[in-house]
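can u pls check wat happens w/ S-adenosylmethionine
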Amino acid sequence: MSAGSDVATARAFAASWNHVGEGPTYTREQFLDWMAPLGPQDFAGQQVLELGFGNGSHLYHVGSCGPSRLCGVELADTLETARRNLRHLPPGLVELHRGDLTQVDLGQFDLVYCIGVLHHLQDPYAGFQAVLRHTRPGGRFHCWVYAREGNEVIIRLVEPIRRLACRLPWWLTKYGLALPLVCPFYLYAKGLARLTQRAPAWAERLPLGRYSLWIAPRPFWFFHHVAFDQLVSPRTVYLERATLESWLRHPEVEPGSSYLVFRNGNSWKFGGRRRERSG
Ligand SMILES: C[S@@+](CC[C@H](N)C(=O)[O-])C[C@H]1O[C@@H](n2cnc3c(N)ncnc32)[C@H](O)[C@@H]1O
């Protein structure tokens, strides 16, 4: 698959990241939840790489965990935005590159992560191979993707709108579509969180219930950003458990080191260690 095929996706995300407002988009709590089972101690003193860093929101939080080197690559024109968000970090710590993660060779790192990117690539498996390629033997990798499981409502209702929306000017998608569409979901999530304060297990049985409880504490602008992100991308795939299990059987993944965690009822976190020595 040609690497150039992700250029349209990157252009769409530049519109998203360059108009979301300054500072990290995610709270520290959200960052920790995305990274678990990795914790702050796993980043301390490590050489860390993020593939597809957007506006640098995860790098912002990794920066506070004491890495020895913090590197990122992104295809979209968001380097200035990310640099502004990371300007508080020690000089020389951060290296940001513009490029296609499936093509670049940035060397090998102790820890490589890729959050919310693989499901937007023309060739998600090529993205996973890039994650492994950049992880040193014995190093760790961690990814997060949209699941096919639990996203039936999104696939049926939102995906047809996305296919149309991604052809419109970004501002029309953001303010003409994402804004009105997210209002009922905002009310649903906030209402659900309130109604089920004492019995969250009940909410989890409803469509997008667990996800709604996760997003409910955030303000309206975050809901709007997530809805825009969902609609602006020309390419989104939803990955099944079986697909990720087959990826994790890659000969470069250390047997017994891998994990696959269903998150918020609609996404997968997975990772492991790269084999110490190639077989
Ligand atoms: C949903 S955003 C996630 C950004 C960030 N990881 C986060 O979680 O906030 C997906 C990002 O992947 C980037 N991207 C898509 N294809 C890429 C490629 N082939 N190489 C590098 N970055 C890519 C997009 O430009 C976009 O910024």
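The pocket of S-adenosylmethionine is lined by residues 6, 9-10, 13, 17, 52-54, 57-58, 73-76, 100-102, 115-117, 120-121, 229 (CB under 6 Å).
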